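Predict structure. Chain length: 549.
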Amino acid sequence: MAFRPRNRAIDSCAFFNELPGSGGPILNFGNLLAGSFLRVWYNRQQRGGNRLSKVTQEVPRTLGALRESSFSESKLAGRGVKDELRQNLICKIQRGDALFPTVLGYEDTVVPQVVNAILSRHNFILLGLRGQAKTRLIRLLTSLLDESAPYVEGCEIHDNPYRPICRRCRDLIAEQGDATPIAWFPRSQRYVEKLATPDVTIADMIGDIDPIKAARRGHDISSELTVHYGLLPRANRGIFAINELPDLAGKIQVGLFNIMQEGDVQIKGYPVRLPLDLMLVFTANPEDYTARGKIITPLKDRIGSEIRTHYPATLEQGMSITAQEAWIERPSPAKVQVPEYLRQVVEQLAFLAREDKRIDKRSGVSQRLPISALENVVSNAERRALRAKEDLAVPRIVDLYSALPAITGKLELEYEGELKGGDAVARELIRTAVGKVYDHYFEGANVGPIVQWFDLGGSLKLDDNTDSATLVRQLAGIQGLMEKLKALGIGANEPDAVRASAAEFVLEGLYAHRRISRNEERGFTAEERKREPREEARAEPPKVRRQFN
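Prediction complete.
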């Protein structure tokens, strides 16, 4: 039984792909696996795993059955992993599917360049500072692989049944012919990732001679059958990713480009031919990648595309990323409600840190900073609500100061910042961020009555452990304060936790603009007025030098 597309113009992506030299259209492998030849699905919803849960009896289990199926030699033999990625990417583009749905902010910059690299069948490298979703992006490349792929059963490097490259599979097929057993491996097993460190060896990456295997099987030590394969051969017919490429030792980089271009390598002095079918993807920091001695020129020359990543370009993009990644929706007796202005302050903090001259620009400020800070802010509000036995936990600006441990550890300071201290730099950044967001809501607003209340001797010390009802009573005593909450969309009927957070934000905004003062001992008070410089004392007449006779 064969599939017959109803409309060639519409269904060409859904069912068929043209392959060079294949003699005609073939079934798209991703959809074919949902068809009559192979039915594979994963019990993700029920058990949350990627374990193969059911395979029908129609799966080709021998090389002969595979030849007679839609996975025939004319369709699989010449189809490399880069062709597979390219064809499935073309299908997604034609259908209008989201290519990398959980990577935000790259839709018009990085993603088009990644698409071009895959369509060009390039190995590529992502250059960017920490916290720019480089690793997440390359891990999502597995969504462009087929659901499953056949290989010679028992093969360590998942050999193509029609074009085996290892000695063991070649001998097995020569011996058993069409009776050679065939197994299938899912796309999740076709991605291998390695963090480059200086202690990585050729044995880790390429392989080594295993004398125990040679002794047990009676092989000569120079036999290819005695090789214990490393990570790179085991990633055959898949995607191999190396994070922080410049940290690899020079001799390992030589082994990489040698196997990329020539397809051969020497293991303990024995030449081994390994024409691997791989998509190679790398990540690196721009400073390390461009530094002389960090990466050898021949390897750099063999990387097809160099793609630069970046931090969110706008505050809205950053807030979307933080909202997606931060653990805010959490099981708790107190319901968490994060005000929009507080999300803006947390994100603005990261944007200011990336521009601050006291923070190392070469290291960058990771997007993990606002994510971790927001989680800590929510946790402090949750702790306060649980102690006060409140049903609603609404973070306040004071909670952001309690989240300093989640901020200072992500800031690499320059000399000037080290002199001032991480905590002091972080507090100044919070103050400036609050001021910027405050201007968005209250620019031009008349806050004179609030400032006057403090000028007349009023003061208010806020504690992050104060319950919402008590805090609202204290804040309500400040003339004109609660009326200003309308600019935040908060009325008198809102819960005390919401009103307390908003009123404190107004006071913090006034403090950020130096309209009022705040310190750890006395809390909010009137801003100290600078004294007028006193008139300088009348200048004394110049002393006349006494003339000596």
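Summary: The first helix runs from residue 8 to 15.
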